[in-house]
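Handoff note, outgoing to incoming analyst
You'll be picking up this chain. Sequence as last confirmed:
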Amino acid sequence: MNRFVLSCIIITGSLFAGSCGDKKPDAPNPATIPVPVNLYELHPETAIYFDQYPGTVVPLMQVDLKSQIEGYVTAIHFKEGEKVKKGQVLYDIDRSKYQATISQSQANLQVAQANLAQAQKDADRYTYLNEHEAVAKQTLDHALTTLQNAKQQLAAAKQQIVKDQTDLNYSAIRAPFDGTIGISQVKVGNTIVPGQTILNTISTDGPVAVDIVVSEKQIPHFVKLQQLKSTIADSVFTLLLPDNTLYNYPGEISFIDRGVNTQTGTITVRLKFADPSSVLRAGMSCRVRVRNQDTEPQLLVPGKAIVEQLGEFFVYIAKDTAIKTLADSTAKVALHALQKKVVLGAQVADKVIVKQGLEEGEKVIVDGVQKLHDGSFIVTQAPAATPTH
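Most recent structure output, in case you need it:
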């Protein structure tokens, strides 16, 4: 019996000893495992960037051609899309009716001239007889009144000829200025309604305008830009075409609209660009780039270091932490991540201007931010980057 008990004790002890020998050490706490990161040390840099505004190309002068007389189109004297000269005949409107009207008005003028000559003779005759008391005073008064009416009728006949001649001249639609003619909206034979039917549109060549809309808060800024010397302003305004290529010629402010739109709180700024190659066309959408005028160095951080949370922006910076362990009472220095809220400015290449939230000399974490939270331990996997000046 004693021998059996002893055997059990030996077996139990062996199993216990085996189980103790197979026990694995506790896994380390994930929160204490440093996250490998790269750092970017902040130093003020000169930042050149552009504010961009949607723009629309508009001619400096553009007119819809309309007729002032009624009739049908009898001839078209241009090719669509070609350049035309001021005074060049573009359309002919049927003029037969207006030529006939002029002929009638000329005949009426001759009648009025004859009536005036007769009235003048009668007035002269009765005036002579009245001086010799050989005619009644009333007869002379009637003769003088007839003479005055004849003069008025002659003047009216002359004015009617001027009006009819003007209508006849309107039958030839001419270019109001040098420019480019568009696609005709009417064909030969179409009837024209005076003041309503648009025949075509003509716009000036050469310099063109680009309109942008800015907030009323930016008015002082654009007034200052407008007052810059031309040698400086030439480099401030540039244009991105619809295919995202940079337009070859810089622009300048032509004018700032007279008033603010009270419903939107915005104002229109018109820029002027040279267009020797006729690249810019009316109605074209583009983007106007306005170069910043800030000369003071600013803090910039790489864009990949920025974290967005619920519409706010944050970065992580590296901070030193003094820690002690139970085995070693000596304090050791470790790095941990500290989250800081920032206010961002314009983007400059792959970096972003930080207006508020960071200070010079701080080291921003640029890699591994997805694995971080406020207080995470970190370890650098490359030397801190320093911007070149």
